[in-house]
Every structure is written in C-alpha cells, then in structure tokens.
Design goal:
With 380 residues, this protein is of the alpha/beta class. Helices cover 33% and strands 16% of the residues. It has eleven helices and 13 strands. The protein has a five-stranded parallel beta sheet. It has a two-stranded antiparallel ribbon with strand order 1-2. The radius of gyration is 22 Å and the shape is globular. Keywords: Mitochondrion, Ribonucleoprotein, Ribosomal protein, Transit peptide.
C-alpha cells in the first residue's frame, strides 16, 4: 500500500492555483469552491457503498458481478488513498444544481477514461452530504447481467429480482430515515401488501422493505418502479436519479430466451422491466431534483450502442485531464508514492497518455514512473 500523504499543506499545486494545499483532508465536496479546483478531497467508500461492493451488504451481491464503480475502485487501489480531484466538470455541475437547477436531465459523455464515472460518484456524494435523496446505480450492467430473470406475462416483459433488491437495499442503506418519513401509494401486489394502511398509503421505506422481503420475481421490480415514482413526486427534499454506464440500458443483455431446439434469442435491455424503468433520461424528472446518466465508451458498451437524445436532455462533455489537472495528478501520485514526478516526466506522460489517468496507472512502469526500489525499502 502506498505511503500516507502529508495533509499539512506542505505539498503545493503545480497548476493554475499554485501555492495552496494539494490534499484537502479536512474538507468535503460540499465545502469545496472554485478556489479548490485541482485539489483532492476525501470520498470515504463507506459513504458511497454502491460504488464499492466490499462496503455494500446488498443481498445476493455475488450474483451481480457488474456492481461497483470501476473508476473509483481502480483509483483507490492504485493510490492506496481515498481522495479524488475536485475537477472543473464536478464544480460546474455542482454549482449549476445549487444556483440554477434549470436543467433537469444531464447526459455526461466523453472519451474513454475521461473521468465520467468519478464525476457521477462525486455528484452523488455531494447530493447526499447536501441533504438530497440520491438513487445511484454505478454500473447499469448490474441491471442487464447476473442474477435470475423471469418472464412477466402481465407486463409482457422480464423481471430481474436480484437487480431490483440491489437497488432497494442501497437506497435504504443511504436514506432509510428520510424515506420512512415520506408516504407513498402502496401499489405492490396483494401478496406483499400487508403493509397497506386504511387509506392505501405507506412510507417509501416500507414500500422498499416489502420489495426486499418479497420472494417472487415481479414484486421487487414493481417496488423499485413504485419507489422511483414516489421519489419523483416529492417536492420538499431534492432527489437525484443517477445511472452510470447508462448506454448498457440500450444494449443486448446477458439473458436469453429459448425459441426452439438449439436456438436461443438474446434479450434486449428494453425487454427487462427494471432496465427500461431506469432509463431516467427518457422519463420525467423529479419535481425537485435532477436525472443524470453517464455513457460508457469502451468494451461492448460503446458508440455502437445508440442512446436516444431527448430534447430536454443536456449533453455535457467530460474532457480528459487538462495540463493543470495533469500536473496536480502527478503531484498527488508523487505524494502517495505511486509515481515519481519531475517537469520532463510530466510533459512526456501527458503527451503519451493524452491526459488519460488510467493509462498512467497501467503504463507507469513502461513510462519509467515507478519510484526506485530504495523508496520501497524505506517503507519496510
């Protein structure tokens, strides 16, 4: 594991804000301002368990190998720390949500490894710190792969109960107290409706818990869709619906249907009731809040998977690291012992990786950025 960085302000920025502390260990994203751009703030895994499977206690998680935010997981594993950079894209959207809130649907796009996933995770973290309720899916493939699936004749679609319970569990883990205070019409089937009150209402938390406890395939999915509708109807506390790797909801799923002897048809994500319901950029936004989707641009989820752009959606480009961001990235990696930094290596690494932090982590040995063996001996 990398050495612990100093947080006394001894490290200084090499970018536009030279002279300030590089690592803002005593701050959180809610208190970060434009003066803190390019510096690092803490994002503890336990505050965002959806992004880190080892911190989530969702049922049957082993059946959902696609869960988690790979960008955050890889960054934390490489650096041995729990900090991320306060980038301009994060600040821009955060301030827009604070000051304007006129854009109800955001679609984040950009080149592979440009930081879209970490930006979404940071915004969810900010929303929760700021008192919002945030339903967060760090990888939409968790809705289209893994677990069991069953045909729902009434809906003429397919239900994925493990994926639904994953969402319900994580939402309750983050917001149980708030959801307990919010009421909703209870729309679950009669077999799950022991929680109904005289007027047919219940708390959103009770609705989610009923879906978690249900044994059939349909009830958990129905619970998620009803919970989302109930969240969107709230006008007091802002609500964020955030789905990363959003274009997985338009790609072929990992599920199939037998259509004859030795024949199997791959199900499209749109045939899955839960996946279709989480196409948040197609549906109405919360009365008070926002929907965010971030596109994946590698693997089978790529530009070959078209995502319809509705007129109410604001497409926003997430660019790879700028020279200022790159300078501070290397300063941070130097501080935590991941790779040594000097002016020549900074320029060379930026040109070779085109501002892609993932490539820097993967290829740092080939680029001669590994610290000397003496540095490792000093840590023993």
């Amino acid at each position: 594991m990398a050495s612990q960085p100093s947080t006394d302000g001894s490290e200084s920025l090499l970018g536009a804000e030279a002279g300030g502390p590089l690592i803002q260990a005593e701050k959180d994203i809610a208190s970060m301002s434009v003066e803190d751009l390019f510096t690092y703030f803490p994002l503890p895994p336990e505050s965002l368990p959806e992004a880190f499977p080892e911190h989530s206690k969702a049922p049957n998680l082993s059946m959902l190998p696609k869960s988690g935010c790979s960008g955050l997981i890889d960054e934390y594993a490489a650096s041995g720390q729990q900090f991320i950079m306060y980038r301009p894209i994060i600040h821009f959207i955060k301030q827009w949500l604070i000051e304007e809130q006129k854009v109800s649907h955001w679609m984040l796009d950009g080149m592979p490894s440009s930081g879209k996933s970490i930006a979404v995770a940071a915004l969810v973290h900010w929303a929760r710190l700021s008192g919002w309720v945030a339903l967060y899916v760090p990888n939409a493939e968790v809705l289209t792969a893994g677990g069991t699936y069953a045909y729902n004749k009434d809906a003429d679609a397919w239900d994925t109960p493990e994926s639904a319970k994953y969402i319900l569990h994580n939402l309750l883990a983050a917001h149980r107290d708030t959801l307990q205070a919010w009421s909703s019409r209870c729309l679950l089937e009669a077999s799950v409706a022991g929680l109904r009150s005289v007027d047919g209402s219940c708390s959103i938390a009770e609705l989610a818990e009923a879906g978690l406890e249900a044994t059939g395939a349909a009830a958990p999915v129905t619970a998620v869709l009803d919970v989302i509708d109930a969240l969107k109807a709230q006008s007091g506390v802002p609500v964020m619906l955030a789905v990363d790797r959003y274009n997985a909801l338009y790609a072929p799923s990992d599920y199939g249907q037998s259509v004859g002897e030795h024949k199997r048809r791959m199900l499209g994500a749109g045939e899955l009731r839960l996946a279709a319901g989480l196409r948040v950029l197609e549906h109405t936004a919360p009365l008070k809040g926002v929907c965010i989707g971030a596109l994946a641009r590698h693997d089978r989820i790529s530009r070959r998977t078209p995502v319809p752009l509705q007129p109410w959606v604001s497409p926003t480009e997430v660019y790879r690291f700028s020279p200022e961001e790159w300078a501070n990235l290397l300063a941070y990696y130097d501080a935590v012992g991941l790779c040594a930094q000097d002016h020549v290596e900074l320029i060379k690494s930026f040109m070779l990786t085109q501002g892609n932090p993932k490539e820097l982590r993967v290829m740092r040995e080939a680029l001669s950025f590994l610290p000397s063996t003496a540095m490792y001996k000093d840590r023993r």
